[in-house]
Specification:
The protein has 219 residues and is of the alpha+beta class. It contains seven helices and seven strands; from the N terminus they run E-H-E-H-H-E-H-E-E-E-H-H-H-E. The radius of gyration is 18 Å and the shape is globular.
Length: 219
Amino acid sequence: METKWQQSFFHDVPPIKMKEPLAEVLGAIREDGTINYTYEDAVKLAGHSCASVSCAYKATELALKELYGEELPVRGGIEVAFSGGGTQGANGPIGQVISFLTGAAMEYGFHGLMGNFSRSDKFHFDETMDVPSGVGFRVIFKRDDTGKMVEVLASPSKIPLEEEDMEGSRCLPLVVQGSATEEQKKKFFHYWQGKNQKILLSPPEGVFEVRDVTDYSFH
Protein backbone atom coordinates (compact mmCIF):
# COMPACT_ATOMS: atom_id res chain seq x y z
CA MET A 1 0.00 0.00 0.00
CA GLU A 2 1.44 3.37 -1.02
CA THR A 3 1.29 6.37 1.26
CA LYS A 4 -1.52 8.70 0.19
CA TRP A 5 0.40 11.95 -0.05
CA GLN A 6 -1.74 15.04 -0.42
CA GLN A 7 1.07 17.07 -2.02
CA SER A 8 2.04 15.98 -5.55
CA PHE A 9 5.25 18.06 -5.53
CA PHE A 10 6.79 15.61 -3.04
CA HIS A 11 7.41 13.31 -6.02
CA ASP A 12 9.11 16.10 -7.98
CA VAL A 13 11.88 16.60 -5.41
CA PRO A 14 15.07 14.92 -6.69
CA PRO A 15 16.25 12.07 -4.45
CA ILE A 16 19.61 12.25 -2.71
CA LYS A 17 21.62 9.32 -4.04
CA MET A 18 24.14 7.88 -1.60
CA LYS A 19 26.72 5.12 -1.53
CA GLU A 20 26.18 3.07 1.62
CA PRO A 21 29.23 0.85 2.25
CA LEU A 22 27.81 -0.65 5.45
CA ALA A 23 24.69 -1.84 3.65
CA GLU A 24 26.91 -3.44 0.97
CA VAL A 25 29.12 -5.26 3.47
CA LEU A 26 26.14 -6.67 5.33
CA GLY A 27 24.29 -7.72 2.19
CA ALA A 28 21.42 -5.24 2.21
CA ILE A 29 22.22 -3.80 -1.24
CA ARG A 30 24.27 -5.01 -4.19
CA GLU A 31 27.94 -4.13 -4.46
CA ASP A 32 28.44 -0.70 -6.04
CA GLY A 33 24.78 -0.06 -5.38
CA THR A 34 23.20 3.13 -4.16
CA ILE A 35 20.37 4.07 -1.83
CA ASN A 36 17.99 6.86 -2.79
CA TYR A 37 16.79 9.07 0.05
CA THR A 38 13.68 11.02 -0.90
CA TYR A 39 11.87 13.98 0.57
CA GLU A 40 9.03 11.58 1.37
CA ASP A 41 11.53 9.67 3.56
CA ALA A 42 12.33 12.88 5.44
CA VAL A 43 8.62 13.57 5.94
CA LYS A 44 8.15 10.04 7.28
CA LEU A 45 10.99 10.57 9.73
CA ALA A 46 9.72 13.94 10.96
CA GLY A 47 6.04 13.06 10.77
CA HIS A 48 5.24 16.22 8.82
CA SER A 49 6.37 18.58 6.08
CA CYS A 50 7.37 22.07 7.18
CA ALA A 51 10.00 24.70 6.40
CA SER A 52 12.39 23.13 8.93
CA VAL A 53 12.17 19.70 7.30
CA SER A 54 12.39 21.03 3.74
CA CYS A 55 15.31 23.34 4.63
CA ALA A 56 17.16 20.44 6.27
CA TYR A 57 16.69 18.31 3.15
CA LYS A 58 17.69 21.06 0.72
CA ALA A 59 20.67 22.17 2.81
CA THR A 60 21.98 18.61 2.85
CA GLU A 61 21.44 18.22 -0.89
CA LEU A 62 23.34 21.43 -1.63
CA ALA A 63 26.18 20.60 0.76
CA LEU A 64 26.71 17.12 -0.69
CA LYS A 65 26.83 18.50 -4.24
CA GLU A 66 29.50 21.00 -3.16
CA LEU A 67 31.47 18.39 -1.21
CA TYR A 68 31.43 15.59 -3.78
CA GLY A 69 30.88 17.22 -7.16
CA GLU A 70 30.24 14.44 -9.68
CA GLU A 71 31.10 11.71 -7.17
CA LEU A 72 28.43 9.87 -5.25
CA PRO A 73 28.31 10.99 -1.60
CA VAL A 74 29.24 8.34 0.94
CA ARG A 75 26.72 7.96 3.73
CA GLY A 76 28.53 7.56 7.02
CA GLY A 77 31.62 9.29 5.64
CA ILE A 78 30.50 12.76 6.70
CA GLU A 79 30.75 14.72 9.94
CA VAL A 80 28.27 17.50 10.70
CA ALA A 81 28.19 20.50 13.05
CA PHE A 82 24.92 22.41 13.56
CA SER A 83 24.51 25.86 15.04
CA GLY A 84 22.79 26.04 18.43
CA GLY A 85 21.59 23.54 21.00
CA GLY A 86 19.53 20.49 20.15
CA THR A 87 16.56 21.58 22.25
CA GLN A 88 16.38 25.12 20.86
CA GLY A 89 13.51 25.90 18.50
CA ALA A 90 13.32 23.43 15.62
CA ASN A 91 17.01 22.46 15.84
CA GLY A 92 16.21 18.93 16.99
CA PRO A 93 13.94 18.00 14.05
CA ILE A 94 16.26 19.72 11.56
CA GLY A 95 19.21 17.83 13.00
CA GLN A 96 17.34 14.52 12.83
CA VAL A 97 16.71 14.93 9.11
CA ILE A 98 20.33 15.88 8.37
CA SER A 99 21.58 13.02 10.53
CA PHE A 100 19.27 10.58 8.74
CA LEU A 101 20.39 11.66 5.28
CA THR A 102 24.14 11.78 5.97
CA GLY A 103 24.41 8.90 8.43
CA ALA A 104 26.21 11.22 10.88
CA ALA A 105 24.78 10.27 14.27
CA MET A 106 25.14 11.62 17.77
CA GLU A 107 26.85 9.66 20.52
CA TYR A 108 24.21 6.95 20.53
CA GLY A 109 24.73 6.06 16.84
CA PHE A 110 26.22 2.88 15.38
CA HIS A 111 29.69 2.22 16.80
CA GLY A 112 30.99 0.27 13.81
CA LEU A 113 32.34 -3.18 12.98
CA MET A 114 35.97 -4.07 13.57
CA GLY A 115 36.95 -0.42 13.55
CA ASN A 116 35.00 0.44 10.38
CA PHE A 117 31.68 2.09 9.53
CA SER A 118 31.27 3.99 12.80
CA ARG A 119 28.50 6.58 12.74
CA SER A 120 28.48 7.63 16.41
CA ASP A 121 29.60 11.06 17.62
CA LYS A 122 29.66 12.50 14.08
CA PHE A 123 26.75 14.92 14.47
CA HIS A 124 27.33 17.83 16.83
CA PHE A 125 25.14 20.65 18.10
CA ASP A 126 27.47 23.60 18.62
CA GLU A 127 26.04 26.37 20.79
CA THR A 128 29.19 28.48 20.30
CA MET A 129 28.94 28.60 16.50
CA ASP A 130 28.43 32.10 15.13
CA VAL A 131 25.32 32.62 13.00
CA PRO A 132 24.99 35.77 10.86
CA SER A 133 22.06 38.05 11.63
CA GLY A 134 18.88 37.04 9.82
CA VAL A 135 20.03 33.48 9.16
CA GLY A 136 17.80 30.66 10.40
CA PHE A 137 20.57 28.13 10.89
CA ARG A 138 24.16 27.39 9.90
CA VAL A 139 25.41 23.85 9.34
CA ILE A 140 28.91 22.62 8.44
CA PHE A 141 29.58 19.35 6.61
CA LYS A 142 33.00 17.67 6.46
CA ARG A 143 34.21 14.75 4.35
CA ASP A 144 36.11 12.18 6.39
CA ASP A 145 38.35 11.13 3.49
CA THR A 146 39.53 14.51 2.21
CA GLY A 147 38.80 16.85 5.12
CA LYS A 148 36.99 19.24 2.78
CA MET A 149 34.35 21.32 4.60
CA VAL A 150 31.42 23.39 3.38
CA GLU A 151 28.82 25.37 5.24
CA VAL A 152 25.21 26.08 4.38
CA LEU A 153 23.37 29.12 5.68
CA ALA A 154 19.60 28.68 5.52
CA SER A 155 17.26 31.67 5.72
CA PRO A 156 13.66 30.56 5.03
CA SER A 157 12.40 33.92 6.34
CA LYS A 158 13.68 35.47 3.10
CA ILE A 159 10.95 33.76 1.08
CA PRO A 160 8.55 36.58 0.09
CA LEU A 161 4.93 36.19 1.21
CA GLU A 162 2.00 37.36 -0.87
CA GLU A 163 -1.29 38.51 0.64
CA GLU A 164 -2.72 35.08 -0.18
CA ASP A 165 0.06 33.50 1.88
CA MET A 166 -0.62 35.82 4.81
CA GLU A 167 -4.29 34.92 4.70
CA GLY A 168 -3.39 31.23 4.75
CA SER A 169 -1.00 31.70 7.66
CA ARG A 170 -3.76 33.21 9.75
CA CYS A 171 -5.70 29.94 9.43
CA LEU A 172 -3.04 27.98 11.35
CA PRO A 173 -4.71 28.20 14.81
CA LEU A 174 -8.05 27.09 13.37
CA VAL A 175 -6.48 24.14 11.56
CA VAL A 176 -4.54 22.99 14.63
CA GLN A 177 -7.60 23.35 16.88
CA GLY A 178 -9.73 21.38 14.42
CA SER A 179 -12.25 24.17 13.86
CA ALA A 180 -11.19 25.26 10.35
CA THR A 181 -13.59 25.02 7.44
CA GLU A 182 -12.57 23.13 4.31
CA GLU A 183 -11.88 26.44 2.60
CA GLN A 184 -9.67 27.58 5.48
CA LYS A 185 -7.78 24.28 5.40
CA LYS A 186 -7.22 24.69 1.68
CA LYS A 187 -5.84 28.20 2.14
CA PHE A 188 -3.57 27.08 4.96
CA PHE A 189 -2.22 24.06 3.08
CA HIS A 190 -1.55 26.25 0.03
CA TYR A 191 0.51 28.62 2.18
CA TRP A 192 2.27 26.00 4.31
CA GLN A 193 3.15 23.48 1.62
CA GLY A 194 3.68 26.17 -1.00
CA LYS A 195 6.58 27.44 1.08
CA ASN A 196 8.09 23.94 1.20
CA GLN A 197 7.69 23.58 -2.55
CA LYS A 198 9.65 26.81 -3.11
CA ILE A 199 12.40 25.74 -0.70
CA LEU A 200 12.83 22.35 -2.36
CA LEU A 201 12.32 23.14 -6.03
CA SER A 202 12.94 26.86 -6.62
CA PRO A 203 14.40 28.61 -3.56
CA PRO A 204 14.55 32.40 -4.00
CA GLU A 205 17.95 34.03 -4.04
CA GLY A 206 19.45 34.35 -0.58
CA VAL A 207 17.48 31.56 1.05
CA PHE A 208 20.55 29.29 0.87
CA GLU A 209 24.23 30.21 0.80
CA VAL A 210 26.86 27.51 0.30
CA ARG A 211 30.56 28.15 0.71
CA ASP A 212 33.84 26.47 1.61
CA VAL A 213 35.06 26.58 5.21
CA THR A 214 38.64 26.24 6.41
CA ASP A 215 38.61 27.63 9.95
CA TYR A 216 36.11 25.41 11.79
CA SER A 217 37.37 22.83 14.28
CA PHE A 218 35.17 19.82 15.00
CA HIS A 219 35.06 18.87 18.68
